[in-house]
């Protein structure tokens, strides 16, 4: 996410919210979304699932077409978490702004760089012209 606050990014205000603290109002007020989750027991975290449960219907019509990105980290498999996020965001009509970052095992330098790039790409797409 630190890429979203890089010095080159201008005119973009980054607001961080933990999944359990984020509300439908937060989602409606944002121009884009960067999601992150561990893969727990073959699925996205309970906190991210709860977030989606709380915001899905209140935000369904008001956020279509907005850009998003996400990263998932799991010990050995992230397939279920990725499938869940893709399913929900497709239903919301959000548009992926950059390739997802999918890391397994101990995160390495390349994984961290990919996360930085994800944040920077999403934020750059939101910059004022």
From TrEMBL:
Coiled coil: none annotated. Residues 20-80 form the NADPH-dependent FMN reductase-like domain. This is NADPH-dependent FMN reductase-like domain-containing protein. Transmembrane segments: none annotated. It comes from Streptomyces lividans TK24. It comes from the Bacteria. Signal peptide: none annotated.
């Amino acid at each position: 996410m630190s890429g979203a606050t890089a010095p080159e990014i201008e005119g973009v205000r980054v607001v961080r919210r933990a999944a359990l603290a984020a509300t439908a109002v937060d989602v409606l007020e944002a121009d884009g979304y960067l999601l992150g989750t561990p893969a727990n027991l073959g699925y996205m975290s309970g906190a991210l699932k709860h977030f989606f449960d709380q915001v899905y219907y209140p935000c369904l019509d008001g956020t279509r077409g907005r850009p998003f990105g996400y990263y998932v980290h799991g010990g050995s498999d992230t397939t279920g978490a990725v499938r869940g996020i893709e399913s929900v965001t497709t239903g919301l009509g959000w548009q992926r702004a950059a390739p997802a970052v999918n890391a397994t095992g101990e995160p390495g330098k390349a994984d961290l760089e990919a996360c930085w790039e994800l944040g920077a790409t999403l934020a750059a797409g939101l910059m004022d012209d």
